[in-house]
Amino acid sequence: MDSARSRQAPGDAPDWQGWPPEAASRYRDAGYWTDELLGDIVRRQAAARPEATALVDGERRWSYAALEREIAAVTRALHGLGLRRGDRVIVQLPNVAEFVLAWFALQRLGAVPVHAMPAHRRSEIDHLARVTGAVAYVVPDRHARFDHRSLAVEIREARNAVRRVIVVGDAGGHPDLVPFEALRQDDGPPPGGEPPDPGDLALLLLSGGTTGTPKLIPRTHRDYAYNARAAAEICRLGPETVYLAVLPIAFNFTMSCPGILGTLRAGGTVVLAPNPSPATALRLIERERVTLTAVNPPLVPHWLAEAEETRPDLTSLRVLQVGAARLPDEWARRIGPELGCRLQQVFGMAEGLLNLTRLDDAEEIVCTTQGRPISPGDEVRVTDEDGRPVPDGAAGELLTRGPYTLNGYYRAPRHTRAHFTEDGYYRTGDLVRRLPSGHLRVVGRVKDQINRGGEKIDATEVEEHLLAHPAVASAALVAAPDGELGERTVAFLVCAGPPPSARDIAAFLRERGVAAYKAPDRVRSLREMPLTPVGKIDKRALRALTHHAAP
User: Fold this and answer.
1) What's the predicted TM-score (pTM) here?
2) For the region Disordered, what residue ranges are annotated (predicted)?
């Protein structure tokens, strides 16, 4: 296998499945894989273009030289705190510059950032800490009216492996919390220790999953650098590129499709949006002369309305990427005429495969498909329920393997066996139709997963929490079509007394430390669940009832 392992004793089972030697050799020979280290991206640009603007966060601005100095300082400080190659570190930050500083510093140490979302709470973070054995946790002081310091203290007390908690902002005088600001001032000697290898585990992304809490997706320096590089070439990025990060910075979409990494690697400028508000984003496009940004479909009608009302100067905007869920064709057709930029549809997954429409594709292709694979090395199959290939134009499940698609989940052999074929193809769970041109149209999913405006909600995980409610005897979560979000969630409950309301359920889940976006949008009480002939809950019958579910 072509990959180093994170810390483990000799003889232990591997944390994750690397690429077979034959495939690894093929990817190197084809030039997809190089010895590029993610931690070197800013260093190279600082040498070539030291005074060019690299990063903008509100009124704070960094040249490449200044960004390099701060990353070097944080690297020294984290080494001083005891972080070493292979250590896992949960990073749960919103769109702030400190995410960039911490992320690149961890890469240089060979430590592994675990990308957590700002909306995650105790249930999700405890799961990540347990599975990864994380030794440190990076949080904001407060975000979206939630005190992350209290959560961090809980996690540190519950998981002894978490030795360090680093806080961006006010540490509140807590003696066990390290202020991030202190890390930026470190002027000690360069850290020693074993440097990372290009085949090392570089980061862990989260899968929306279909069973239980999120699965962890291992990405290496080689495959993730190629992901960003190939996407950047298709998007024609260069030093003149100004990328606006609107969606959460920890999303794979925001990081490398081509996102932050592709932009910095091309010598461009990354601008961080503090929130996804269309008003905020359009003001930043005007102020910073943004050329490229990425949003999810639910934001599109709000952007169109905001642009019509406020008439901002969007003449710098060259490309608007839309992905994370399927974009309705009618919205796609409005983007060019109303925003004055090129639409690029994006269909990808943190597990790997990335599809983009091309900047020179015909308008009909851009407005009605979700792109085609970015690499000649991407292998795609579209199959029926029995695994047999279907002809172009027919719907089937998308299977894939390639130079930046994982071969197995992190520390999850059961999930790996369930989601991969014997010859290494990843079963995406997405239903697609492939055109003769290779472009894909997404038509649905075979997974029991709900895509609520780009947020992937695992029905099984939420159902497990619902069943913990004292009034709930049986629970099932299904998707209902929604014109704005694509899908909303409906919880069907069988109760042993008065049924709880949607508000009651939201409060209950909040108390259990579940992220707010996972709370059902609607709740409906049933006397009994419909069952299949083999005694399982019949979710197809429940979906047929969703139009009757009251808010």
Assistant:
1) 0.88
2) 1-22, 370-397
